[in-house]
Amino acid sequence: xxxxxxxxxxxxxxxRREEEAYEFYTKAAEEATxxxxxxxxxxxxxxxxxxxxxxxxxxxxDVCTTFxxxxxxxxxxxxxxxxxxxxxxxxxxxxxxxxxxxxxxxxGAHSFYKALSELTxxxxxxxxxxxxxxxxxxxxxxxxxxxxxxxxxxx
Length: 155
What we know:
Elements (H helix, E strand, L loop, with lengths): L2 H29 L3 H26 L11 H7 L16 H25 L3 H29 L4
Helix pairs in contact: 1-2, 1-4, 2-5, 4-5
């Protein structure tokens, strides 16, 4: 496998994770008991679709040829795939568990996109990954605030 193919696999995995995040937030919105939470989760779902579209566009623009890694071993040593963890929801997950899982997913996505932004030598691709990283961090912060408001209101 070539370096380019390795990065293509990573970007494809990221696209799948964005699709899963969309489904995750859509399902959570359907189950939300507060209208404000439902609206927030629907907005997060919508943004995840935007992330998928940005990644697909980057693939079309041959982003995989712009990364600075010289070998597949170098890519593997970076451990980028560990950031795109899949933490499954159980059918009986509590709202608290859902928020914790969502925060972990967003933090992993943030770290993944941040790492990719540091590996590309092309400014417009770096900007795409930096933007995605910032958006995922913002999602995590929003979820943390929601968690704090619901489960730690006295802090």
